[in-house]
Design a protein that fits this description.
Elements: E1 9-16, E2 22-23, H1 25-28, E3 47-48, H2 57-64, H3 66-72, H4 74-78, E4 82-87, H5 98-104, E5 111-115, H6 122-135, E6 141-148, E7 172-179, E8 186-193, E9 203-204, E10 220-221, H7 225-250, E11 259-262, H8 267-277, H9 288-291, H10 298-308, E12 317-324, E13 329-336
Parallel strand pairs: 4-5, 4-6, 11-12
Antiparallel strand pairs: 1-7, 2-3, 6-7, 8-13, 9-10, 12-13
Length: 342
């Protein structure tokens, strides 16, 4: 890939965080006895954002796309050939939000693809899919839209917000603009599925029932000390593994990348990933205390923050990496940043 015909670039990203920041004090008023309250996995951020009571994932994506429209024009968004989406908590259980998002953005794309298995690494998976489709001639422009909207809905339920896990997630959305061009080339992408771990993330409801059945009790993530230990071990291993795989192929040691952008489950992972890749804290974007765990929106929100703050210069190499759920998927992507259109 050495010319505009074959090269695919992530040329911009814009984001949206709903409402005013919600402080950790909000959860202290509800705090209940919880065997996992002292676990490192659930050390709460200072702030996070919550989706509004009537705000949909489609609303969030439309608001996130506003920055792209402002910088590139409505036609660039509306004329995109491919729309790739991921929503943490779909507005409707039977179908994804891609069709409604396309309509709201004024699009008539040839491809609308909803991703779910990518989880916290969905933006990386979206980059790989967009790159492959555009390079294969299926269009010139793709949008990758992700919405994390579970914090203000699942984790703010009356009985769930008493748990330690409730204070960690935050809500947000992002839209990435991918084009067949050499402006900000995607250098390499690595995605790995670990199917043996696919059943390890579960919904816990008391009394037990299937998630779709009516009944008392509110659902939350079924964490146990044993599960947390496994997730920590997998995440600590998988993110460096996919990162090294990408760096090996582009001929750059991880310690020499200019910026590391990861998902942000908790402070422990952030520290361990930096150490594994031999990177200083100054070259790893960290918005955990401002936004909490943004799940799939974490990478694009952090990337947008870094660009806006001037931490990313033209020609810099960005490494994006994440793992998903209980470790059933992980991905990494490298990008040579070409600068943002003002």
């Amino acid at each position: 890939m050495n010319d505009e015909t074959n090269t695919v670039s992530l040329i911009d990203v814009s984001t949206y965080l709903p409402g005013d920041p919600v402080s950790s004090d909000y959860y202290l008023q509800f705090a209940d006895s919880d065997d996992l309250r002292d676990n490192l996995m659930f050390r709460a951020p200072r702030f996070r954002h919550h989706v509004g009571p009537d705000e949909t994932a489609v609303d969030m994506v439309e608001r996130a796309a506003a920055g792209l429209v402002e910088r590139h024009g409505q036609d660039v968004v509306a004329d995109a050939d491919v729309l790739i989406t991921h929503t943490q908590l779909p507005d409707m259980p039977f179908y994804g939000g891609g069709g409604a998002m396309a309509h709201r953005l004024g699009m008539k794309p040839n491809w609308v693809i909803d991703l779910h298995n990518g989880g916290c690494a969905a933006f990386v998976l979206g980059l790989k899919l967009a790159r492959n489709l555009l390079a294969a001639g299926e269009g010139r422009t793709a949008l990758i839209a992700v919405a994390q909207n579970a914090a203000g809905q699942i984790f703010d339920q009356e009985t769930v917000r008493r748990k330690a896990q409730a204070a960690v997630p935050g809500d947000g959305a992002a839209v990435g603009l991918v084009t067949r061009s050499a402006e900000s080339p995607i250098l390499d992408v690595e995605c790995r599925t670990y199917g043996e771990y696919a059943g390890d993330m579960t919904i816990s409801v008391d009394p037990p029932r299937k998630w779709w059945q009516a009944g008392p009790g509110e659902g939350c993530i079924g964490f146990t000390e044993s599960k947390i230990t496994k997730v920590l071990a997998r995440g600590n291993r998988q993110v460096p593994e996919v990162s090294y795989a990408v760096c090996d192929r582009i001929g750059l040691a991880p310690k020499d990348v200019d910026l590391l952008v990861t998902n942000q489950p908790n402070r422990v992972f952030l520290r361990n990933w930096r150490d594994a890749l031999e990177l200083p804290k100054t070259r790893h974007v960290d918005t955990f205390d401002d936004c909490g765990n943004l799940f799939a929106a974490g990478i694009p929100v952090n990337l947008d923050r870094a660009i806006t703050a001037g931490k990313l210069k033209t020609g810099d190499t960005v490494l994006m990496a994440a793992f998903a759920h209980a470790g059933d998927f992980a991905g990494a992507a490298a990008l040579r940043w070409g600068g943002r259109v003002r």
